Amino acid sequence: MSQIFDFSKPIAIGSDHAGFEYKTALISFLEGKGIAFKDFGTHSTDSVDYPDFAHPVALAVESGEAAFGILLCGTANGVAITANKHQHIRAAICWGEEIAQLVRQHNDANILCIPARFVSEATAEKMLQVFMDTPFEGGRHANRVNKIPCS
């Protein structure tokens, strides 16, 4: 049961002020690969509230409008906590390529959460590439993932 993302749909991306610069860099990264995206903001480094951007990204992924999501904030905890309030979202905080690979393989993560204050821009790009390239393994992992929703 190998599942990879449907790249005929855009990638949803959003950040707060702490993640804005990395979001801009990741958008350039996606553009360089010809991958469509939808930017849910923020659009500057002015202080904002991360839920205002995490909820729309999560809704786009949950509804199927987006292939998957990318969220950034200082620690990635705020955006991950917010996104994971949505029933069919599996938002995973990643700080390295191996974690990005494992959350796709084992958890079928559908939102990559990046702690902009704790990883380099190069690491963020590498994690995104690994996240996009790694399929969900299914099997015993599917049984576990199917137990995540509350209803």
Automatic annotation (TrEMBL):
InterPro entries: RpiB (IPR004785), RpiB_LacA_LacB (IPR003500), RpiB_LacA_LacB_sf (IPR036569). Keywords: Isomerase. It holds the Pfam family LacAB_rpiB. GO terms for molecular function: ribose-5-phosphate isomerase activity. Its EC number is 5.3.1.6. The keyword Electron transport does not apply. SUPFAM superfamilies: Ribose/Galactose isomerase RpiB/AlsB (SSF89623). Belongs to the LacAB/RpiB family. This is Ribose 5-phosphate isomerase B. It comes from Terrimonas rubra.
